[in-house]
Structures are given as C-alpha cells and as structure tokens.
Amino acid sequence: MFTLIDLPYAKEALEPVISAKTLEYHYGKHLQAYVDNLNKLLLGSGLEGLSLKEIVNQSSGAIFNNAGQVLNHNLYFSQFGQADKVANAPTGALAAQIQKQWGSIDAFKDEFVAKGVGLFGSGWVWLSAQADGSLIITQELSASNPVTKGLKPLLTFDVWEHAYYLDYQNRRAAHLAELWKIVDWKVIEERY
Ligand code: MN
C-alpha cells in the first residue's frame, strides 16, 4: 500500500508562486487519486511489494500511469520550500557540472524552462543524472519518468495544466519561470 507523502512545508508556504488552493487540488485531490488508483490496481497484479521505481519500470497501461504519476509528484512536491528558506542556488559538484555543461546556471534554467514550454500536451520536464555524473534535460510525456531511460531524476517541473491553471491560467512560461524561487537546491544536490 502506498500512502500520500507528507509535504515538508505548510500549504501556504509556497505562495504566491503556488497558491494554497492549487496545492489543495494538485496535492490533496490529484495526487491522492493517483495513490488510491494505484493501490486498487496493484491488488492481484503480481507487482505488490515492489518499490515505485520498480513498478514504473515493470508495468504498462493504467498501473504505469498511476505509479508514474505518484513517483513524479513525490519528487516534485518534495523539492520545494518557502522562498526565503530554500537554498536558491546549487553548490558543490552539481553546480560545477551545470557550469561545465551549460556555462552558467541561468543558461541551464533557460533551456529547462524552454523544454517545459515546448512540451506539447501534458507531461514533465526533468533534469537527470547519467551513470557518469553528466546531466541531461528530458521531456517526458504524460506519466513517464526518466527512470524508464536508466536515468537518475533530480529536478522536475510539472507542465500538466492542473499544476498551474488556477494561478496562471494559460501562462505556462510565466509559471515555470516563477518556480525557481521555491526550488530547494539542497534537495536536488542530495538526489545527485
Ligand atoms: Mn501534476
């Protein structure tokens, strides 16, 4: 049985970047539904007892969609924090690798947002690590996760409309640009 993760911050902590109302729906309704659906679908599937990553890598159809969305949202919601409390820039090996590949953190952010804006339909933009420590930005459609490509997911922006429509309506680019204010780079570094 999977359960809804606890948020490491209060519902109002991400305002005005993500409103309490968006969290109420996105976390409290959408993610809860993915968790509930996954638990029902797993009964008698032969996949009970596996980790989320294992289920994502070994399933297809409805189980893949719900397990993928639980994994994606768990990584998404746990990477944020209150704007004035988060580590707002990467340091150490991760910062050095971004610098090496993109030339600057801002150039990396620009490409990441552009790939999120350019994703047609619903999905996710990801920063992941490859086995040799190099970094890669990928677009994943619908419920997919970079673990299906053998990558280690580090950072993600959700570009499904349910992630931003209440606060930003159709302005996906504006929403993605604002998200940098609440990304906790300490969490991203720990994943790397
Ligand atoms: Mn979502």
Write structural notes for this entry:
By secondary structure, the protein is mainly alpha-helical. It has two domains: 20-80, Orthogonal Bundle (Helix Hairpins), CATH 1.10.287.990; 84-191, 3-Layer(bab) Sandwich (minor pseudopilin epsh fold), CATH 3.55.40.20. The chain is built from eight helices and three strands, in the order αααααβββααα. The protein has helices spanning 20-42, 52-58, 61-77, 92-102, 105-117, 165-168, 172-179, 185-191; strands at residues 123-129, 135-141, 152-158. The protein has a three-stranded antiparallel beta sheet, with helices on both faces. Strand 1 and strand 2 form a beta hairpin. Helix 1 (20-42) packs antiparallel against helix 3 and helix 2 (52-58) packs antiparallel against helix 3. The longest helix has 23 residues, at 20-42. It is globular, with a radius of gyration of 16 Å. Manganese (II) ion binds next to helix 1.
